[in-house]
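Notes to self after the call with IL:
- keep both proteins in one doc
- input above output, always
- annotate only the second one for now

Protein 1:
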Amino acid sequence: MIGWFVTGTDTGVGKTHVSTALARRARHLGARVFAFKPVETGCTGLGSDQRALVEAAGSWQRGEQCALYSFAQPVAPKVAAESEGVTLDLDRICSAVHSGSGTADFTIVEGAGGWRVPLTETQDIASLARALALPVLVVARAGLGTINHSLLTIEAAERDGCRVGALVLSVLPSDSEVLSQSNAVEIGRRWPGRIVLLQSDPAVLDSLCSTWNTTSVRSLPATE
């Protein structure tokens, strides 16, 4: 399975923005894309993040290949699921991912919230990432606080035995370009992986869309 498991340093840092941009760029480069967010809270039916991913992948996905779990309360998935009498099933999620990725060249799975967000009594986003065995792409803010948040998330993912292939700093129009670049440099001094600044041009993600063996991306040190 070629692709990424997309996680974030927090909720609202731009995971869906990055994931949809990545899906569109991969399609632009000729790949058939499966883009999937198995759990979304704060919505009923197909959530806005789930819908955006399906559309970015080309709107070919149907049924459980669009989404599995949506919950009305805007809280952590475990809490939202319990409020509706549901227990999240990681085996079911993995089965849906493998079903969708089996007909695609490139797979994007977006987690909910950050790395330690609970899914069940004993499982969290990290558990799902490990089960899927995709390389991890961490999305973070580009501005103040991102050095600490990014490095802590990367350290946690690597300590959990996952391969962190890239960090994408999602730059908002209000962010200082100088500060964003400086943050990327400081993170790069402490972590040797690939760091990408996503501003107005999504083509900077093209190096993350290739159908190479993604086990090798950890060795790519360039900052873009």
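Protein 2 (the one to annotate):
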Amino acid sequence: METRLLGRTGEGLSAVGFGCMGLVGWYGTRDDGESRATLLEAVDRGMNHLDTAASYQAGENEKFVGSLIRERRDAVFLATKYGITRTAEGVLKIDNRPESIRASCEASLKRLGVERIDLFYLHRIDPTRTP
């Protein structure tokens, strides 16, 4: 698998990343066996850049990905994001408040079951908070 350096970090990432959104039923029926086999095969073949989000299936995606990579944590570059949430009524909300970002990062660490996230970034930018 071809790799590329991430900026000046020295991190070598697979040129093709693995978007995890569809692993737990986003696009249809959930099939954990197929999703597990697909993700682990990708990692075995050198795809080390995995990308998930707090909003994918209300955190279930992060739990699933975390359960699969725990034994391979040093072999992957784990990215997750925050910024899209839902109100109690189910309405989509963009939230970039610093306190929400901090709380989301802590919650993602817990769901993923890891001590570090390699890249934590905004899923959407709140247009009401930009200068």
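Annotation: Residues 3-122 form a domain with the TIM Barrel fold (CATH 3.20.20.100). Residues 98-112 form the longest helix (15 residues).
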